[in-house]
């Protein structure tokens, strides 16, 4: 059963498809092994996950749109996110544990600035950024308050810390704040989970609330709420199949350096995946995430699909 839950790797980087005007993003799948019932024995588990998220669709509300072409405004073109997420999970005992998540991202972004040509027309200027670096680390504790032979429930609580850079720039100017590797904020995290096992089938549901309690330099990220529902099926002793439904809501960003009109929204995504045990305590996995409904405030870049794969090791 423990390999099964290896499959509990739902997609993407910790909190969400971080919806923003220029498209900084992490996958919003669940890879929280404690929520899925895997990390029940004392010990350490390491998970390394790679993600590819191509935000190439400009959307307003729930519809795809073309560039507005307004003078002295910019039109988003594309953002490509290549992310790595390292997770260290320490199960102190069957009821208590702590998880550390450290993201590393490589991001490229381009948009068109519609400069006034001085004659009533537009002189389009393409601007681009490309950078990589560490993002904001998360430290999350957990407590299992309910435990039965076939089901578990618990609470998760922690902090997101401002370890990521907020000053990345190209040769001339800094990237927008929502595009930066870090938000510059300290956020509280609070969630709950429930999982159940019945033979070769396992299911779970979990939710997480993220709220900024300390922001910096005129940028306060919007509150985020996520919920994940998942099922896994052990097809063979080594191969597990899984399906997750991932829901997320993010309120508008605020502050002098934010873009409230073009931030926030909600999404529903379907995430099929599989896991294969290659050795005792070691599994590889892969997922494809497909948004089935997306709604954004203003105009924002969104993905048509994303992919994640990784390695999970129990010590």
Give a short summary of the structure:
The chain is mainly β and 315 residues long. 2% of the residues lie in helices and 61% in strands.
Structural write-up:
This protein is 2% helix and 61% strand. The chain has 1 helix and 13 strands, in the order αβββββββββββββ. The protein has one helix at residues 2-6; strands at 43-61, 63-64, 74-91, 96-116, 122-134, 138-147, 151-160, 186-198, 201-214, 224-234, 239-250, 265-279, 282-314. It has an 11-stranded antiparallel barrel with strand order 1-3-4-6-7-8-9-10-11-12-13. The radius of gyration is 20 Å and the shape is elongated. It starts with a helix and ends with a strand. Mean pLDDT is 87; it is low at 1-20.
Order of helices and strands: HEEEEEEEEEEEEE
Number of domains: 1
**Average pLDDT taken over every residue:** 87
Quaternary state of the chains: single chain
Tell me the CATH topology: Porin
Topology at a glance:
Elements: H1 2-6, E1 43-61, E2 63-64, E3 74-91, E4 96-116, E5 122-134, E6 138-147, E7 151-160, E8 186-198, E9 201-214, E10 224-234, E11 239-250, E12 265-279, E13 282-314
Antiparallel strand pairs: 1-2, 1-3, 1-13, 3-4, 4-5, 4-6, 6-7, 7-8, 8-9, 9-10, 10-11, 11-12, 12-13
Comma- or semicolon-separated keywords:
315 residues; mainly beta; Porin; eleven-stranded antiparallel beta barrel; 2% helix; disordered N terminus
């Amino acid at each position: 059963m423990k390999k099964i839950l290896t499959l509990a790797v739902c997609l993407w980087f910790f909190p969400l498809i971080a919806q923003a005007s220029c498209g900084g993003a992490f996958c919003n799948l669940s890879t929280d092994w404690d929520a899925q019932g895997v990390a029940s024995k004392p010990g350490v588990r390491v998970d390394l996950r790679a993600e590819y998220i191509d935000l190439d669709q400009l959307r307003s509300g729930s519809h795809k749109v073309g560039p507005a072409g307004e003078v002295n405004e910019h039109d988003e073109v594309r953002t490509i996110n290549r992310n790595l997420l390292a997770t260290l999970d320490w199960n102190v005992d069957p009821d208590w544990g702590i998880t550390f998540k450290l993201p590393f991202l490589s991001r490229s972004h381009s948009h068109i600035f519609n400069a006034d040509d001085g004659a009533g027309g537009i002189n389009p200027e393409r601007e681009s950024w490309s950078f990589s670096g560490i993002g904001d680390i998360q430290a999350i504790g957990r407590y299992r308050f309910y435990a039965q032979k076939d089901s578990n429930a618990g609470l998760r609580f922690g902090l997101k810390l401002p370890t990521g850079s907020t000053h990345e720039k190209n040769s001339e100017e800094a990237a927008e704040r929502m595009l930066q590797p870090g938000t510059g904020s300290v956020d509280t995290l609070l969630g709950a989970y429930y999982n159940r096992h019945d033979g070769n089938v396992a299911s779970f549901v979990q939710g997480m609330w993220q709220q900024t309690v300390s922001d910096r330099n005129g940028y306060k990220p919007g509150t985020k709420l996520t919920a994940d529902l998942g099922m896994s099926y052990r097809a063979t002793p080594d191969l597990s199949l899984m399906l997750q439904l991932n829901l997320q809501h993010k309120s508008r960003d605020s502050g002098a350096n934010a873009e409230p009109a073009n931030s926030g929204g909600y999404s529903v995504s379907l995430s099929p995946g599989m896991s294969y045990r290659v050795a005792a305590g070691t599994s590889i996995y892969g997922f494809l995430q497909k948004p089935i409904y997306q709604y954004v405030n203003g105009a924002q870049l969104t993905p048509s699909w994303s992919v994640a794969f990784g390695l999970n090791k129990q010590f």
